[in-house]
Amino acid sequence: LELLQEPWKMVDDISALGLRHVGFGIPTDLFGPLATAYIEVFGRYVADDLAVEAYRWSIGLISQMLVQTITEGSTIVMKAINVNSSRQLQKAVSCAPRGVRASWVLLVQVGSQSISPLGWSIESGSLNAAKAMLEDLLAIRADRERYYYGLEELFARHPDIVHMLCADAPSLVPTFLEGLVWRSRRTENGSRRVNYYVKPLLINIEGKFADALSDFVMLADPKIISQPVLDLCSNTLWNGIVRNEFIVSKIWFIISLFALMMGQAILTEWPSDYNIRCACLAFRIFTYLLTMCRLMLSHIRDIWLGYYRGDIAYFYGLPVPRYIKDIENFGGLVLGVMLICMCIYEPFFNCIGAADWPVETCENSHSSLFKYSVFAMCAVGIHWCLMVDLSVFSTGLSAFVLVCAQVGSEIGRFMAALLFLLLLFASSISVLEHDYPDMRDVSMTVVALFSITVKLYEDDYRDFQDDPILLCMVFAFVTASAILLLNLLIAQLNCSYVYIYANMVGFARLKRAEVIVEELKLTKPAKWTRFVGTLGLDFALELNEGDVGMAGGIQGNELQSAHVVTQDRILRYGGSCAQDMQWPEDGMDKEDEDEDKLQKMERIMKAALAKISGSERKKKKHKSGGSGIGNSGVSGSSGSSGGSEHSGETEDSDNKNASSVL
To answer: Is 568 inside a domain boundary?
Structure first.
């Protein structure tokens, strides 16, 4: 009924379904039997001939539309994708006119519906074909009039191509990034010119910051983020706009730490006169008003938005906003809570009304001074820990911090194992009858054994040598903790450090890229527009001297030894410049043809050898049978001779085929 009520909509839906069948490689020969089966099953349960005829008509019409859609959409490119053959895809694309070559791998349209061969190959897992399409799109070709580079067509068709690659085909990311770089063969003073075509990675269609760098951060691959293209993008954004924004965002944090230190650790050590007490009170009020209020308002807003938008995560079954999973955000929340507790137990506030106010010590503050000192200690420690975020200014320092954070998990496992040993031996020793005073109960024994482990125990083992069982227990603990666990910890740290050291610069760049993404979300559009204008992405870049190429990139230089460039990446062709002409065959196509010939000859030779070995087995079988019965032996020998003649003929024909291939 919908086919008659809304024919345009149904035709679009059927066309979309047909294009999906094109992607799956469904043959059109199956639609006839399928339609017949539908009609037969429907006719068994419906007695009305008119309804059966109407159903037959509708099924036949839908089948015809699907067959027509599949026929029109089954291009040679889609057929190559279905078999996941890069060589077949290269041959298919070589038939395309140079002006529309990119559209052959980006668009297959039937009516108002379309499908992307590149997108379908990535989605279906045909990565060989997808890699061949990426290489063809990002190849730079040139005739005597213009350059052909499919980067703009790629992002116009797939603005989310970076997200597609990072999510579904991470193995193709290096191929994609390498296609954005042009390196000159010519060197001058030990360096060569390099063009990085990174405009789509920096700017989206609307002129805003693109999501490409965010996708690479989510991929969290230190080797990928260290690629020259992404390194250039990160450094350009960091030096151009993010560094100043980051410094401004951290100034208040540095000032709040200064105020906290002055009010808690510096002025409190000075002589207690009236001016010093007033200054100390002023710094503490400044901390409560600036740091505490700012932190709590920010976290209350983020917590409300997290629950309102449903962006939550579960922590031991409890729903919490997802942003708290970040260690820096969690540390900021804990710091705000510590400052609130400090404000509640603030001695200056509790002593209001004292004769010599402002003072910290009075009758009302004696009971809360220790609690206040504990909260102040935690606040100062957390504040200093949050300052580690400033290490992103130096890649080396950031790498060292990340190494320390990564090996912390190994230390945590060691401490868990050591705690188990402490409880095990402390519980065992506490129930043993002995006269040693430092190991009377479990708690004292834990302290004593831990002191022995870290070489801080003051007594000597000869103090309890008169108790051999206790001495054996202590020696067993030392063997398990100081010898086994400590050496195992050293081995684990060594293995972890070797892995992290190989990628620590990549981890540092990954951390900086994460900061860049977070800061650019808060950047004003006007400032971003001014920054983009300074990059000159709309101007054509010069390739070699006097050769003006494509726009949309940033030019730089690299050391001659950084990469080996033996041939120019630009494929240049002479002849006609008409855009409806195909590109001439290049050397790569000839190499592929030669390789095809060699593979074909190899298959022929394998088939010939298989037939020869089969005939030899038949000979042996007939000879063994001829030893029993004479007639059968004669027939067997004749059969074997005939088989050998046949095998000789087969070998001659295969040799002829091989020579014709060569």
So the answer is: no
